Amino acid sequence: MNISSKYLEEAIEHFASLPGIGKRTALRLVLNLLKRDENNVKRFADTLNHLHERIKSCKKCGNISDKDICGICTQNSRNHSIICVVEDIRDILAIESTEQFFGVYHVLGGVISPMDGIGPNDLNINSLFERIENETTEEVILALNSSMEGETTNFYLYKKLEPLGVKITTLLKGVSVGTELHYADELSLGRSILNRLPFELGFKK
Questions:
Q1: What is the pTM of this model?
Q2: Which of 66, 72, 94, 176 has the most CB within a 10 Å radius?
Q3: What class, spelled out in words, does domain 6-54 have in CATH?
């Protein structure tokens, strides 16, 4: 692609670095921005700057938040005795869209993957154990993706959580929720949350 402007080329490279965005799509997006008025583009750029400057990670659960503690963790109407363990923010958005879960979350920030050099100490796991020990936790839902890495992480957490005496459940395996949780349709995901199983039964299935 022969670009006559280095600024245009640089902008295209940045957009093309995003997941699922190729060079042609990046070019189309950048050209669209060029057609907008200056104030509109400035607001767009300011929003991108604010992503790193103002968005935080919830100190309690790891969710994305504008404050130190996210809105879900501070919501009194939610059942704080039930913690749903997920891989990342996309899974929270998927589960919240079902309107079937009213507990709180804990974001690991990934899954155990020895091939990628990711072990338990690289994830937000120790803080989960601290929450359970310091709070009144009745149930932990292991809602990680049904990949090999996700199942490995689920089993690791189960073995660590079992001695703590909390109820450990997992999503219903009989319902197809997709390989990745955030790609599941709302109806199937909602059913799998409502009909969750004790982890040891779900793991055997």
A1: 0.81
A2: 94
A3: mainly alpha
